[in-house]
Amino acid sequence: MTMRAHRREGWVKVGLGVLAVVILAWTLFPVYYMVLLSLTPTNDLFQPGLYVEHPTLKSYTYTMGQDNPFVRYFWRQLSTSLVVSLWTMVGVAAVAALGSFALARMNFRFRRYVSALTLFTYVIPSSFLAIPFFKMMADYDLIDTRLSLVLAMVTFATPYALWVLSDYARSLPPEIEEAGAIDGAGAAATFFYLYLPLIIPPLIAIGTYAFLYAWNEYLYALLLLTGEERIPLPVAMSNFLTTDNAPWNLLMAVSTVYAIPPVVLYYCFKRYLVSGLVSGAVSGT
Amino acid sequence: MKLTTREGGLEASPRVVIAPPRARPRRLFRSRTAIGFVFTAPLLFLFAAFVVYPMAIGLYYASDPDSYRAIFSDPVFRTTAANTFWYVVVAVNVKLVLAVLLSGVLDYPYWSIRVLAALFLIPWAVPALPGILSFRWMLNSQWGIFNHLLTKFGFASVPWLAQHDTALGAVMVFHIWKYLPFWTIIFLAGRRAIPGELYEAAAIDGGSAVQNFFHVTFPLLRNLYLICTLLSMVFTLGDFTVPWLMTGGAPGDSTHVLATLAYRYTFTMGRLEWGLATFTVALPITLLFIGLLMRWVKI
Predict the structure, then answer these.
(1) In Å, what is the CA distance from A273 to each residue of A4, A215, B59?
(2) With an 8 Å Cβ cutoff, is B76 touching chain A?
(3) What is the mean pLDDT of residues B12-34?
(4) A247: alpha, beta or left, given left = phi > 0 and alpha = psi -120 to 50?
(5) What is the pLDDT of residues A70-99, one digit of tens each?
(6) Phi first, then psi: what are they for A5, rounded to 5°?
């Protein structure tokens, strides 16, 4: 390597180092501040600083023990979030597995329209449909039921899941159908015994995606579920904001607990959570 | 059974006799269209019942011209339209330009950059709500860390969320903070799909880093970039969570965007048809974007 190239690489490294510090500060500070506040005792809350002088886990013990009016239903709200997310996961996995088999492995007459409808559902902002969806659920008397929220979440999480699964299913060899045909299996048997075992890895990934979609959802949860005992965690947290004397350290403790499952899952499955969009976008060009 | 691959070839070899037709119901399943329909039935049901039907209800309730007369004469609606425009145009474009540039930084093959890339994903993994709450407390005019630092260094404190410009700015900054990592990984994947030989050829021609970017990287990322811009604009156009939780429309309903204003009309004021009309106003541009996307993206 020549002197000049050497020097150039040195400057690139210095530049990258400076940039890295800026990026890290920008990225991590809000999260650091959330955790910091959750460890701040109430007396110090109104003396802002960059670190905690007297760290305490009190906010967490209050939250876990439901020892404050604001977190009175913490466990029930957490379990509502969990139950809705798990059912969304099951629903999306089932619908997307069936749909991907048809879309990726068969050539039937209305295939193009089905994919167009799927893509449309993916791109239309779900908030555009929220008010009519609320009206419809009110007409069916399904407001305040978890079912209504699960149905909404399954609907909006399915397109992306279907996308990822179909992409994967297309890469499987044609021997699946051949083997099925030799055994004289019908479409249903081919699906259950030959196709389903092969798509388990991406199925787990899209299940995670669906779980996170429902876990993070705010608007539909706000509209469809009411009452402290029935709302999921994020809606309960936003209700803190309606009062002026909200205990922010407690709120941040709840926030931290609420943020942990998604952070863990995102890091485990991050490859699957973006791949579908990229391959879709790249192959579309 | 006539299962075919996507290439359309008939996969069952002709020697094999498959499932001889016995009773009439079996016949139904011999038709490819019927099988395709059975497997996509749950999907079609969901989309018909929870996408197409609500959309039809929405348009039905939004069909009264009086609603449009009412909302167009509402000054809050006009502010909201401007807010939404700036939110979509500024936040999305700043975010995507930064994402393309940062994807170049994260593409360097050093181990420290790989650590940085992993940490950089945190805002994407943390749900929006905790992040917004943290921003809100940082921006609190009395006890927030920003004003604390400003006053410490002798500047005047700023009522960040209590005036229109900085409050809308906070919404945009949060949007960029939260979604920049996602789009950066998308572009990173796009960059990694570019064949290395192109850069080798550019290196032989003595191209600088800047020339490389404009002559190799960007032309090849351009389609991806356009699709991402459209997609992100459509998503942001309907964003409710970030503006609602960051400002809730405050101060004085000056920072609403479409979705939060529709919520206010429908649930605070009890005017369902106004809420739906608010979305319908944005529908033509949304459908135009969606139409373009559907031509470019294949599922």
Answers:
(1) 42, 15, 33
(2) no
(3) 49
(4) beta
(5) 889 999 999 999 999 999 999 999 999 999
(6) -65, -40
CATH of range B75-296; options 1.10.3720.10, 3.50.50.60, 3.30.450.40, 3.90.1300.10: 1.10.3720.10
Please, which residues have CB within 8 angstroms of residue B80's CB and are 6 or more apart in sequence? B256, B257, B258, B261, B278
pLDDT digits (tens, 9 = 90+) for A229-242: 999 999 999 988 87
Contact B1 A132 (CB under 8 A): no
Burial of B29 (0-12, 13-18, 19+ CB in 10 A): middle
User: pLDDT at residue A107 above 90?
Assistant: no
* B28 in reach of chain A (CB within 8 A): no
- Pick B23 or B285 by higher pLDDT: B285
- Is the CB of residue B276 less than 8 Å away from at least one CB of chain A? yes
Integer Cα distance of B94 and B102 in angstroms: 12
3-state secondary structure of B194: coil
Name chain A contacts of B4, Cβ cutoff 8 Å.
106-107, 177
pLDDT band at A60 (very low <50, low <70, confident <90, very high): very high
pTM of this structure: 0.89
- In this structure, the dihedral spanned by the alpha carbons of residues A117, A118, A120 and A123, taken in order and rounded to 10 degrees, is 180
The predicted-structure confidence for A173-198, as pLDDT tens digits, reads as follows 888 777 777 877 788 888 888 889 98
Q: What residue segments make up the domains of chain B, in order of their start?
A: 75-296
A276 has a chain B CB within 8 A of its CB:
no
Interface of A with B in 135-164 (CB under 8 A): 135-136, 151-152, 154-155, 158-159, 162-163
Task: Quote ipTM for the complex.
Answer: 0.91
Among partner residues B39, B121, B235, which is closest to A102 by beta-carbon distance?
A: B39
* Residue contact B46–A155, C-beta within 8 A: yes
**One-letter identity of residue B274:** W
Residue A177: both structure tokens together: 């159908």
